Amino acid sequence: MEQSFKIINFENIASTSEKAKELVAENFEPWTVVVSKEQSSGHGRKGEGWFSPVGGLYFSVILPKTNIDDLQTITNLTAFVIAQTLKNDFNLQPLIKLPNDILLQEKKVAGILTENIIIGQNPVFSIIGIGLNTNIDNFPEELKDKATSLKIELNQEIDNNQILEEILIGLKKQLEIISQ
Amino acid sequence: MNFKIKIKDKEYSIAIREDKEKTDILVDGKKYSFQKNQQVKTEETKEKKNNIFESEKIKEIKTPLSGIISEIFVKQGEEIKFGQKLIILSAMKMENDILSETRGVIKKVLVTKDQKVKENEILIILE
Asked: Which residues, including other chains, have CB under 8 Å from residue A95's CB and lie 6 or more apart?
């Protein structure tokens, strides 16, 4: 893994983004990445749950300070990086449902949640949380028509570490353009 | 010590005489005496400083983004600290934690959950 990322691995935490917020309060630097094998309270916007069993890839990245006008671009660029990685690595045709979701065969395969911490009128840092359904064999009944995984679509095991590295390198390349 | 100074084309003769108790400054022969250890009046400066302080004191918490109030964590009369989470604003499909940039006491929370707000709208007034 490229040395410019500090990756902190967990077995099972409530939420990688909540942990990343705690780390920011402890002065962890931008491009610190929190990874967990599973999440007990993985969530999207408005607290909506994100199914996070072992096998999937769940991580949150502490980003450098961004201009307020560029905040929305963070999510869009992240969606682009994930979609491009899936296309390049697995010859898939992902659809970006802007700004938060990546679909395969009209089912959700990845979700993005950008959270900004604002003091006064200025964002002081942003955290991007990503849930990618990689090696998930089965979804609960209520999600079966809405969600899919790379393993289900490709019928093969996915190397989570490799895909994490590719997404992080892609993210850094894209987001450094807009970061201060 | 004697010297001359020129202010706006007019030349002044200055003489400074100093002893243990006072300093005399003669400007074209007119004497100005200053007692040593005399308390220098500083009211004007103090007042100025107070004014600057007042103008910098934050009385309103505004939103830098348009969006919808997702959660409110504080209420009227509550004492808040710097960096305390006040509100979550959902904007552009992002969650934005609005933290306090000052310490103080909340006079009024002007918004409610699920309320739409516009950029620069006041969310909270401080005492």
From this structure: A83, A102, A103, A104, A106
